[in-house]
Amino acid sequence: MRRLLLIVFFFEVGLVLVVIPWLAFWDRNYFWELVPPLGAFMTNNFVRGAVSGLGLINITAGCLELVSVLWARSEGRQASITSP
After folding, report:
1. Do 32 and 39 contact (CB within 8 A), yes or no?
2. What is the share, in percent, of the chain residues with pLDDT greater than 90?
3. Rounded CA gap, 69 and 9, in Å?
4. Residue 31: its pLDDT value, please?
5. pLDDT tens-digit series, residues 46-83
6. Sign of CA dihedral 21, 25, 27, 31
7. 3-class SS letters over 3-69
8. How far is CA 81 from the centre of its chain?
9. The pTM is what?
């Protein structure tokens, strides 16, 4: 059950990190208005792409974890079928 929650967490965080930097929500940040150089840095397209890249890494980790769960489940079934 914990592994499934971990998979859901990876997917959720990954999707948020992929989408949020490209929305208007990203541009309207209270802290960036207080520190203008930070705002200029964070609205740079390269920084947005890096954040989206981290989201893709999270989604990939979720996919790999899901594959490992499914693989372990299928090997458990095969072992029970072949054992006497």
Report:
1. yes
2. 57
3. 15
4. 85
5. 999 999 999 999 999 999 999 999 998 877 765 555 54
6. negative
7. HHHHHHHHHHHHHHHHHHHHCHHHHCCHHHHHCHHHHHHHCCHHHHHHHHHHHHHHHHHHHHHHHHH
8. 36
9. 0.80
Into how many domains does the chain fold?
1
Contact 54, 10 (CB under 8 A): no
pLDDT value for 1: 81
End-to-end CA distance of the chain: 29
Give Cα separations from 78 to 3, 69, 72 (angstroms): 21, 14, 10
Residue 1: helix, strand or coil by DSSP?
A: coil
Q: Is 84 helix (H, G, I), strand (E, B) or coil?
A: coil
Domain containing 48 equals 2-82
